Input
Amino acid sequence: MAMMRAAVEPAAVVSTGRWADVRETHIGVVFLLGDRAYKLKKPVKTGFLDFSTPQRRLAACLREVELNRRLAPDVYLGISSVSAVVDPRLPGPADPEEHMVVMRRMPDDRRLSALVRAGVPVGGHLRALARSVAAFHAAAARGPEITAEGGRDAVARRWAANVAEVRAQPPVLPIDLVDAVDRLSGRFLAGREPLFTDRGTQRRIIDGHGDLITDDVFCLDDGPRALDCLEFDDRLRYVDGLDDVAFLAMDLERLGRPDLAEAWLDAYVEFSADPAPSALRHHYVAYRAFVRAKVACLRSLQGDPDAAADAHRYTELAWRHLESGAVRLALVGGLPGTGKTTVAGGLADRAGAVLLSSDRLRKELAGLDPGDDASAPYGEGLYSPARTDEVYGELLRRAGALLARGESVVLDASWTRRRHRRAAEELARHTDSDLVLLHCTAPPEVARQRLVTRPRTASDATAAIATALAATADPWPEAGVVLTTGSVADSVDRATALWAASVGEGAVRAEATAVTAPGRPLP
Output
């Protein structure tokens, strides 16, 4: 017979369903009694935790309460002890005292996972949770040791360890899919050291929750509660705040709600004023998905019949996000009047990339407003070879700073000179970015008509300059061709398709032209 030897303060009853229940995991047992939950640690020792002695189990209980009270202080009520009642006349020592975490019992039907599966609107709950987690992160512990665990090299080590564990097991996943995830994650990290350095400098690496999933979030009438943070290894909680919340985004997407995942991340970024590029969001969602894939592989080898399919789904999710988050440098070129500026702007909008324009930069470097007239004969004035080399050099310098910080870039320029394109290719290699080459074309009479009728822009090009450029332009056979005689949407669709196809290729090498369905023509 067991007895409770420590009392806790009463709390409101929020439980539903059965009055008493028992739930067991590989490291503990949870006893549900009325409005309370009692968590008992099993005397186990694994590669990542040690509950082998009563003292270690007590320390784990105390740590669990301490850490989880940061986000749910009214749920984690304290520690209670349990011991056996032994007849003193019987031989042998009494069993040692055990300890349990005492909690308010949460209603199963208010789990975030249950609500999402039932199709219940949860947008308000997610915004409230995002506000709460952002405030928690703002006050969370920081320091050199914590920052180091969120740095680029530490993230790379965690990726490598997970990939190595998957490869060391009997195959559950297709090896080419694992290789693709390994290659894309490594490519992102290799070129992004300034981004991760900035995250540390901005104090974005914190002692977070570490295990934020939909099963452990409860949406109560007085606000959400996030339970069960990762307490057995401090280093696994030392993460970028965006990494911390990416776990929940990944879990929402796993439940078939990528819209909620995006809304959740958007709300967190809003409340935390986080300037991270979207590529970093994708990267951390991918990392969390692959960790789950690794665990599913282990479950499959232990005989779980559903685990192999889970592993595939998680790995494909990771791969999709790594593709979406791949950093790209797009050169959108062509002669005057071919619609390159319109295509470049549309592509940048679609891809969420930064747009840099040679026409605007040329005026900026000369101290002029974009709309100022700087017309000159071909190769003279602001358009002399020396001035043009200066413009392209500065264009690539600015692009390089953005690429290293995880921002994809679209460069709108003529790109008629091979030496300028070679410099861009070298920049893409140096920053481990995917290079997208897009050559906008239109029949000469169409381009000429556009130059005559278009409103004033930052460009000073005329039909005569277009003819001179065409006569001296270096061939560009490796670029994907975008024929711009159709609608703007069709041309941007073509550019977007080439952008998507560029991942891991280094450059787009395509000969096909865009479709020319009727629609609004390019200006």
